[in-house]
Amino acid sequence: MENSLLILLQLLMAHIVTDFVFQPTSWVIDKREKKAASKYLYFHCALAGVLSWLFLLDLSLWYIGLFIAIMHFAIDLWKLNYNRDDLKIFLLDQFFHLMTILAAWLFLTNNFIGVHEAIYDFLSSAKWLAIIMAYLIIIFPAGFLIGKATERWQSEVEHDLRKNSLQSAGRYIGIFERILVLTFILTSNLSAIGFLIAAKSILRFSDQSETAARKQTEYVLIGTLMSFSITILIGLLVRQIAF
Question: What single-letter DSSP state applies at residue 70?
């Protein structure tokens, strides 16, 4: 088990060093402009393979480095030809790289049967299903429910929110705060929820003398209290099931 984990960490380290440490901005710019004609694309992918080979500390595993270099090239070329460089493409790019590393790790450790057993154990575990379902509920249905519940007041603050807030910022803040609250509950760190509420209260403080600002603060407060209440209830319920 320890050796298996070591191999995975070695491959991940090689990827992180290749993609984020030994890739200058000049290489990235050249690859975007020239795509497959860029020499730095080939340098970068060769580096991914060589580092993976060296980090494994076994020169007989050269074929793993070759596999990773080829897959790295295919993934990066796909990304370059997509003509987009936003968060979605970045996450997809990293996901494909991680799947390549996972495949190499499974091959080296002969853990394909273990993965099947782990998936079976996960799907047959009430504890893990309850935890995963709780996170899915607070991320998706909970946000929809809060949006519908506060819909009656949205028209009163919509103009000020568009003028003074980042687009969709409130939605993402709500998602992250619910993830944090649920995590605090599942890890028995209930006191941390108070610090989270205090921090958000400070950031949301506004001049109450202005009617528009007061309405916006009340609107945010209603959404926040609903968000926290739903998440706390779900968290306490999951604790009864899973722990």
Answer: H
